[in-house]
Amino acid sequence: MQVQKASPSIGAEIYGIDVTKDLSSEMMSQLLHLLHEHQVLFFRDQTLSPEELLHFAQMWGTPVSYPFIKALEGFPQITPIIKHESEKHNFGGIWHSDTTYQEIPPMGSLLYALEVPDIGGDTMFANQYLAYETLSPGMKSFLMGLQAQNISGKDTVQKTRSDIFKHAAVGLKGDELTAIHPVVRTHPYTKRKSLYVNTAHTTHFIGMTEEESRPILKFLFDHQTKEEFTCRFRWQKGSLAIWDNRCTMHYPLNDYHGSKRHMLRVTFEGEKPV
How far apart are CA 61 and CA 173, in angstroms? Predict the structure, then answer.
């Protein structure tokens, strides 16, 4: 196994592994350590059936279903993420951490590329440990102990779902789920603190109005996606990424109009943020 950092701040590409094979407990322990160290891991040139994808996913955790989009037929834990050539909006095309509107948001997610544009459609990732650690002592003190409301139906994210909902929505409406989480959360394994708000789902601080919260949240949203906290991954057919949802955000770029992008996603059961 070879490891190459994707950027100085986040991400690593892993070479020399065929994820369709049964990986030893020692190998999985090494990969989990690398995930905790780099927050997102990338694998290339993988050829996976849905069964093999699910088997690999189960080595990382317990897969859970996504509430708003139809699952792959026969595989309720696998969600197809497809943008067709005629569509304008890409699903999740905004900086976010996955489903923070759930009481128990996922530990992480896995994304596998079946079909990608010749150019464009990259995904950016941002290190939220660094986002927190580079705040001033005064801001850290202010945020510590604060909680914020997260909703599934915030206008900024609803727009990104508009095209995929036309052909893949399930009965649940996008504005139905809400959850309250700490603004700064502690990772259960690394024990590092990370910033845990995002522009897609966070609306306001508990005990404050949206108007009072807005300027502080805007500062945090701008701060947490600074270039020095990020990496950018260029997808190829057969590429696979797995990220830790507890300390990262991601942003799939919508710069490939007229081309199709077909991905399969699996998310993993997490724990209540603290």
Answer: 27
pLDDT at 187: 98
- 56 CB neighbour count, 10 Å cutoff: 22
- Within 10 Å of residue 25's Cβ, how many Cβ atoms? 8
Mean pLDDT value of segment 127-146: 98
Whether the CB-CB separation of 255 and 117 falls below 8 Å is answered with no
Q: How far is CA 231 from CA 13, 59, 203, 243, 258, in A?
A: 11, 25, 26, 12, 25
Find all residues with CB under 8 Å of 33, minimum gap 6, and list them.
none
Residues serving a catalytic function are 96, 98, 250, 265
Asked whether the predicted pLDDT for residue 83 surpasses 50, the reply is: yes
The residue-averaged pLDDT of 73-86 equals 91
Of 142, 134, 92, the residue nearest 227 (C-alpha): 134
What domains are defined for the chain? Answer: 2-268 (3.60.130.10)
Q: Cα–Cα distance between 87 and 82 in angstroms, integer? A: 10
β pairing state of 248-252 and 2-5: unpaired
**pLDDT above 70 for 165:** no
Indicate the average pLDDT of the chain: 92
N-terminal to C-terminal alpha carbon distance within the chain = 34
Lowest mean pLDDT among 89-98, 132-141, 212-221: 89-98
The residue-averaged pLDDT of 65-79 equals 89
Which helix or strand (DSSP H or E) is residue 216 part of?
Answer: helix 210-223
